[in-house]
Request: fold
Amino acid sequence: MSAPVCAVVGFGPGLGAAVARRFAAGGFAVLGLCRDPARHAALPKQTAVMVYNAYRASFAAPGPSALAPADLAADFAVNVTGALVAVQAVLPGMRAAGQGSILFTGGGLALDPTGWLPAASLAVGKAGLRSLALTLHAELASQTIHAGTVTIAGTVARHTAFDPDRIAEAFWDLHADPAGAFQPEIIFRG
Reply:
């Protein structure tokens, strides 16, 4: 029997790689997907876990009033619309299998969008992503498909309280929730 697949959408050398290492240690074959489509294959239909870690951020000082509408739209397309597209790609296989985990990398700006005003576009995107995660959780939990978000309330950096390997454990913990006790969110405060 082949290993279950964990697809990490938004794979990079930081948190994406840490999540990939954690799920590989848990017995998963890992598929890392990044911005360059030539560097990865399509999401396999047998994906047991999908982690949406992609994001785009435009910064505008002093805050949202200086943000170009086109930048906000482009950021939202990656931060929320891209997440929905990824979900729709893996959900038929998860429904057929009667199980799966859809996990999102959230951000503390979804909880307090005034934390850094030049990042207003990212705050809007993370709030939208959090809403998507929580509504998918409500829709899918009865189908034994776990949707949830790890909301990171700090800056990801090695050798800090927000070390990517520590955060990856929160993704594993969220995935490991038993059916009937799925958590919709872990707020990672370091």
In short: The domain at 5-188 is CATH 3.40.50.720 (Rossmann fold).
